[in-house]
Amino acid sequence: MVTARNDVDPSTAVESLRSALSQAGIVLPSLAVDVGSPALGLIELGRVRADVAMRLATALRQGGLG
């Protein structure tokens, strides 16, 4: 389901994503609400090691995040 960006609370989105990633065994240490642009509701995904990026890509391909 696609929702307009203003319909989703950034903090809720961060916690939802953190939970889904955790279930797939993936941690994004810098995952947070971007406080520099509150009107846009942006999420900071941060930087990750290459092995974490590969696990994330695999989980997405396998439908393992949701």
Main attributes?
mainly alpha; 66 residues; globular
- The geometry reads as globular
Strand order of the largest sheet: 1-2
- SSE string: HEEH
Class computed from helices, strands and strand pairing: mainly alpha
Question: Rg, please?
Answer: 13 Å
What share of the residues lie within helices? 25-40%
The termini sit apart by: 12 Å
Instruction: Please state roughly what percent of the residues sit in beta strands, choosing from under 5%, 5-15%, 15-25%, 25-35%, 35-45% or over 45%.
Output: 5-15%
What average pLDDT do the residues reach? Answer: 87
Low-confidence stretches: none
Q: Quick one: how many beta strands? A: 2
How many helices does DSSP assign? 2
Q: Let me know the largest β-sheet.
A: 2 strands, antiparallel
Blueprint (SSEs and pairs):
Blueprint: H1 10-23, E1 32-33, E2 43-44, H2 50-61
Antiparallel strand pairs: 1-2
